[in-house]
Amino acid sequence: MIQLKNITKTFNTGTHSEKTVIRNLDLTIGKDEFITIIGSNGAGKTTLFNLISGNLKPTSGTVHVSGRDVTRDPEYKRAGYIGRIFQDPLLGTASNMTLEDNMMITAEKGFKWLKISLNNQKRAYFREELKQLNMGLENRLKENVSLLSGGQRQALTLLMTVLSKPDIVLLDEHTAALDPRNAAMVMDLTEKFIDSHCLTTLMITHNMQHAIDYGNRLLMMDGGEIIIDIRQEEKKTLTVKKLVAMFNDIRKKEFETDEVLLA
Amino acid sequence: MIEGIFVEGLIYGIMALGVFFTFRILDFPDLTVDGSFPLGAVIMAVALENGWGILAGTWLAFAGGTCAGIVTATIHNKLKVPHLLAGILTMTMLYSVNLRILSNRANLPLMNVRNVMDVIAEKTGGIIPEAWAYLIFFILVVVFIKLSLDLFFHTDMGLVFGALGNNTQMVINQGISPDTMKLIGVGLANGLVALSGAFAAQYLGFADVNLGQGIVISGLASVMLGEFLLKSNRISILTLRVILGAVLYKAIMYFGRFYGYYIHMTPNDLKLISGLLVIASLFFANYKKIKEKGDG
Amino acid sequence: MKKNVLKIAMTGLLCLAAAFYIASPAYAGDALIGISKIVAHPALDALEQGVQDGVKKTFPTAKFDLQNANGEMSTASQIARKFKAQNVDVAVGIATPTAQALVNAMKKTPVVFCAVTDPVGAGLVASVEKGQPYVTGTSDMTPVRQQIEMLVRLAGVKTLGHVYTSSEANAVKLAGIAKQVCKDLGIGFVASTVTNSSEVKQATQAIIKRVDGIYLSNDNTVFSALGSVLSVANRNKVPVMSADPSSAKDNPVFAAWGFDYYKMGVATGRIVARILNGEKPVDIPTKFMTDPSDVTLIVNLDVAETIGVKIPGDILETATVIKNGKPVN
């Protein structure tokens, strides 16, 4: 479904601060795959997401979606079929507007015209969907989103993203900024939604255990390359210890981040 | 006094709505306004002079302003020029354009052409005093514009505008080009400003290429005063308070002139007062936020 | 490579164009007079025409370069440099800012200022008794006292309102004189200042209830907003005395007393002709329009009727009377 071929991304080419963040990367993402991505800081995970979403264009290489070459497509065009959730829970909603207005904006992807789509029918639909979050948000449709907590906003963002029916969902450490209780709640919802809507998903996480427990494919990145790619069956028998050992074998050095190991 | 405060306040209120749109909703500080306001005025003047009619002049003025806004947005979008600079560029170019429209004159008196003020005076001649007739007319016009704007912000497109200034990423995530939205937004806003200029020319009795000098400040002051007057997040209140702010601003200017000499203030000081007003409104509007930050 | 060649070609073309512009020779034989005015405005336009006619009386084949600074100081400076580059024989500056720009730019070309209220205050000449080596001209110092006295005589004013631009030097000076005149005459004086033509209406409204007469001096900004003043004044039945007769012909001004600007233009043109004939500017003192034949009084009977003022018979005989929108005599 998504094919990245021979992608290289270099910043500040030609200057003394030149840095190659992604190196000759090949990746094919199939439909219905739920891929967890793990790696130390600076491994290139977020850059990978940016290359898929169109926020960054590759220095060389191509990006194909469903067979179409979208390498030169701007971010907003690709957003028509990509849903992305960021670490910052405030980035997914407009804080100056009400819940229902926010949900109305994201109800459908694409350019909006001069019609008024928000009506009681839509509101009833929103309420139904909001019930799944179990936060009582279905009674707060007319309230401003700024009154919600970070956890609530991220959950809402998740719901809104799912409802906009994207072909691919990019989750960029979307629970990392939440407290443990909310993080767990959002992860549960995430799994539930991906399951029920059969969404093709990529999830970056710093939590190795999460990476193993969730999804049906695991990628580990280091230094701008994918060094480990484990699928279905093999993944089921993975443990954190095994993963770290694999890393040591390949890279011949200690896996850096404490938080990953202690997760 | 009714005219000086309320009628002028309402006319300039239309311009303030345009400034509100760019400055607050789009988060796009737009100085095109200093050029699109007189643009509306001169287009209206030329239309009246050539006998094309008041309605035609009004539509043309609105269209002209919209074009000016589109130019600014295009410069910003395509050449990646910062908001302020894009606006200044268009405003500067508009000065020459305005002179050209007036056939290289800087000023065109409208005393001897039939304009909307004369029509109002004729239709209500004798029944109600002129000043009240003007007031009622402009209240109707501004209410119509305000309600149209409110309706606009309730449409799907309007909702996206609401999000655009607050969270551009969210708009992008929907598959909508923020550049296209800015084109429409800045265009419409300047259309409103030019419309205001068209009315102002008829009210003041002349069109002058220098009419727009410093007008963005009076627009901003009106918006700020409005925010100080009413607090809300609902769009219908937001547009209302802009108009109230514009009327209040004109009132302050008027009383400054009228009673200023009691405190040895001359009308020359009015510009200083405008600046201080904006600062004061900003302070009080932010006071609550600052206080909360301090306690929390 | 191609890009560089293109750049060089463009630069070359630009240089060539500039060279042509700078090197344009003065018309051999016929005198070239550069006339620069600060804005397009009936009074200044009349002056411009008068200057040309005044010069043509002696030099019928003279050529004129007419320029309009559109209210911008920077444009006035550019016009001055243009005249200098063209080697005009004489440059005429209509109104203070343009005259100043010309004098600043041209040190060896005679500059004749036209309709500058206070040439000494403007730094154009050291005294009005004689000119400078390259500067002389005419002053439109308006007879403020006579104007106000005439208004009092016609309409019995007890408190005089005066709207003027605080950023125009000549307007400020005249306002000071008006204040003094009112003091001498024992009538009240209420001033209202503006910085921009769009403020004129509000400025007039702010004082209209406190005054029973309004005086407008030679203030370009207020004159561009004349309509604003008149609509407020006439509606409130307050008579307006203006220092500019030319705009009183087409606009409902109660009374106007001043020079005919066209005649002043002609007088200026005659000074230009004297210089072209060899007279030195330093020998020509600043000319004021003090001749009775230079001054015009206009009264508008329609406005008088609206306001409810009766104009004395002897005035009706000597003045230009406007009735039903047209001059009667």
Please describe what this structure looks like.
The complex is a heterotrimer of chains A (263), B (296) and C (329). With 263 residues, chain A is of the alpha/beta class. Chain A has helices at residues 45-53, 75-78, 99-106, 120-131, 150-163, 180-197, 208-213, 232-236, 240-251, 258-262; strands at 2-11, 19-29, 34-39, 60-65, 68-69, 82-85, 168-172, 200-204, 217-222, 225-231. In chain A, 35% of the residues lie in helices and 24% in strands. In chain A, the strands form 2 sheets. Chain A has a 6-stranded mixed sheet with strand order 6-7-8-3-9-10, sandwiched between helices. Chain A has a 4-stranded antiparallel sheet with strand order 2-1-4-5, covered by helices on one side. In chain A, α6 (180-197) links the parallel β7 and β8 (200-204). Chain A is globular and about 60 Å long. With 296 residues, chain B is an all-alpha fold. Chain B is 77% helix and 2% strand. Chain B has 12 helices and 2 strands. Chain B is globular. The termini of chain B are far apart. With 329 residues, chain C is an alpha/beta fold. Helix content of chain C is 45%, strand content 20%. Chain C is built from 13 helices and 14 strands. In chain C, α2 (42-58) links the parallel β1 (32-37) and β2 (63-68). In chain C, α2 runs parallel beside α11 (261-276), α5 (144-155) crosses α6 and α7 (200-207) runs parallel beside α9. The chains are: A alpha/beta (263), B mainly alpha (296), C alpha/beta (329).
Q: Any key phrases for this structure?
A:
heterotrimer, B: 296 residues, mainly alpha, C: 329 residues, alpha/beta, eight-stranded mixed sheet, six-stranded parallel sheet
Q: Strands of the biggest beta sheet of chain C: in what spatial order?
A: 7-6-8-9-10-12-13-14
Question: What portion of residues of chain B is helical?
Answer: over 70%
- Shape label of chain C: globular
SS elements, strand count of chain C: 14
State the helix count of chain C: 13
Q: How are helices and strands ordered from N to C of chain C?
A: HEHEHEHEEHEHEHEHHEHEHEEHHEE
- Mean pLDDT of chain B, rounded to whole units? 88
Low-confidence residue ranges of chain C: 23-28
